[in-house]
Amino acid sequence: MIVIDASALAKYLLREPDYDRVEQYLVTGVHSVDHLVKEVASAIRKHAVVYRKISVQDARELYRALLMLLEGGVVVLEAQEKYMRQAFDMALNYEITVYDALYIAQAKARSSKLLTSDRVQAVVAEKLGVEVLHV
Questions:
Q1: pLDDT per residue over 16-41, tens digit each?
Q2: Which of 6, 54, 115, 126 could hold 133 in an S-S bridge, CB 3.0 to 4.6 Å?
Q3: 98: three-class secondary structure by DSSP
Q4: Which residues contact 46 (CB under 8 A, 6 or more apart)?
Q5: Distance between CA atoms of 90 and 107, rounded to whole angstroms?
Q6: Burial class, 52, CB count within 10 angstroms (exposed 0-12 / middle 13-18 / buried 19+)
Q7: For the domain with range 2-134, which CATH number is right: 3.40.50.720, 3.40.50.1010, 1.20.1250.20, 1.25.40.10?
Q8: How confident is the model at residue 67 (pLDDT cuts 50, 70, 90)?
Q9: pTM of the complete model
């Protein structure tokens, strides 16, 4: 099983460089924490409103695509509360955000690989014994 974080899924939806490397993992299905939806939606919004790289209409379409991935079972979500205690400790001990630590905690608890585009998160995950797929 693979746990995907927001950086990797946003890369795929926004068609950033190497997005096709994410796509190969989506074909088999991935898991994540429910916080992913908020993070990816925020990344889409930022590309439309802050960076102005995409239109607001494109942002709405990308958000619909995100929902389709969830509704279609391509990305299976778990409640973040299940991993909050471990994530909070990781965030304190390794000086990363709780958001990033949630994905690591889920991957560690499930003995899964972590699919991410975040280098700092990848380094911490590896320190904690999680195999990382960096895209």
A1: 999 999 999 999 999 999 999 999 99
A2: 115
A3: helix
A4: none
A5: 13
A6: exposed
A7: 3.40.50.1010
A8: very high
A9: 0.96
